[in-house]
Design a protein that fits this description.
- By secondary structure, the chain is α/β, with parallel strands linked by helices.
- The relative contact order is 0.15.
- The protein is built from twelve helices and 14 strands.
- The protein has helices spanning 25-31, 43-52, 63-73, 88-99, 149-153, 168-183, 195-200, 202-212, 220-227, 279-292, 297-312, 324-330; strands spanning 7-12, 16-22, 38-40, 55-61, 78-81, 103-104, 118-124, 130-135, 155-161, 187-191, 215-219, 245-249, 255-259, 262-266.
- α3 crosses α10.
Length: 331
């Protein structure tokens, strides 16, 4: 870190609990649930789905919070901004961040608001694909008032979760955070989060990336959706010169790095997949950790692949074991 920066990465995202459930392929069809993407649902719909499934695990989640959690376990100094309600689920979420020594000071949702802490029901099919059904709840009420200027100003990186574009007040919060980051020379990383999310906000995303992003994280479907291309290689000529790097994950193929005029694929090791939830979030953790140690982009992608591989072998988006040995091996 530079002398005037106290933190390595601060993130803004959807603060919520993940409820993981195993289901059959026909279940998705019967319930009219689009597979492999994030489906926004009401609290009533969320509760109805829970009546039909049997959870195998409940854990603090949220894409950017997952990334920050792993970065904290890797030893970086981190912070998080995201809205929760003052309820049992919110307490679990906050306790998890504090336990990992993550700076978290976002105020609870106003008591006059009846929404509860957000919840994401993750349906895992036999092919290990995850389908998310997200009730935003309290996190939808994140506003520019919640943006911690000092936290962003004193961080090397601001990490923005694309899911948070599903909320008008949250868009304002995003742009306030970006303004603070630019004013204080805090670098900006943005994750596209989901192809349907990209579809909903394509023009806003493209403008945001072109004007503000130093680094972009995405997967193959999101990149193709963003630029409306059939093959990810075709995105090369559409990526603005202002974006230093695009790191695009491609499941078992590893990741592609788009850097200036070059495209390079970084292969990954094969693992026995239990659940794909959080793979992209943890790839971003490894990549950002590498950048904090001044590794090459290629080595950052290798680290991202390896940490993503770790989370693929467990249920849920959070790596619970110590990563001390992992750091030593990859130093």
């Amino acid at each position: 870190m530079t002398d005037n920066k106290k933190y390595d990465v601060v993130a803004i995202g959807n603060a919520m609990l993940d409820v993981l459930c195993e289901v059959s392929e026909p279940f998705l069809d019967q319930e009219g649930i689009s597979k492999g993407v994030m489906n926004l649902v009401s609290r009533e719909r969320s509760n109805n789905i829970l009546k039909l499934v049997k959870p195998v695990k409940e854990t603090a989640g949220g894409s950017a919070a997952n990334t920050i959690s792993t970065l904290a376990k890797l030893g970086l100094k981190t912070g998080y901004i995201g809205k929760i309600a003052d309820d049992q689920q919110g307490g679990v979420f906050k306790k998890d961040l504090i336990h990992d020594s993550i700076i978290y000071k976002t105020a609870f949702l106003d008591k006059g608001n009846s929404e509860s802490t957000g919840k994401c029901i993750v349906l895992i099919t036999p092919d290990k694909e995850r389908t998310m059904n997200t009730y935003l709840g309290a996190t939808e009420y994140l506003s520019d008032i919640d943006i911690d200027e000092e936290l962003i100003a004193y961080s090397e990186w601001l990490y923005l979760e694309g899911y948070r574009f599903d909320g008008q007040e949250s868009k304002k919060a995003f742009y306030k955070a970006i303004e603070i980051a630019k004013k204080n020379k805090t670098k900006i990383a943005i994750t596209l989060s989901d192809s349907f999310c990209v579809d909903r906000h394509r023009s806003d995303f493209i403008n945001l990336l072109n004007e503000s992003a130093d680094l972009v994280f995405c997967n193959e479907d999101e990149l193709k959706s963003l630029y409306e291309v059939e093959y990810i290689e075709a995105a090369q000529k559409l990526i603005a010169d202002t974006i230093s790097c695009v790191a695009c994950t491609c499941a078992e193929k590893g990741a592609y790095l788009f850097h200036k005029s070059s495209i390079r694929r970084i292969s990954t090791k094969k693992v026995s997949v239990i659940d794909t939830t959080g793979a992209g979030d943890n790839f971003a953790s490894g990549f950002l950790y590498g950048l904090s140690k001044n590794f090459s982009l290629e080595k950052c992608a290798v680290l991202g692949n390896e940490i993503a591989g770790e989370v693929l072998t467990i249920y849920g988006p959070r790596i619970e074991k110590s990563l001390t040995n992992f750091i030593k091996v990859n130093a």
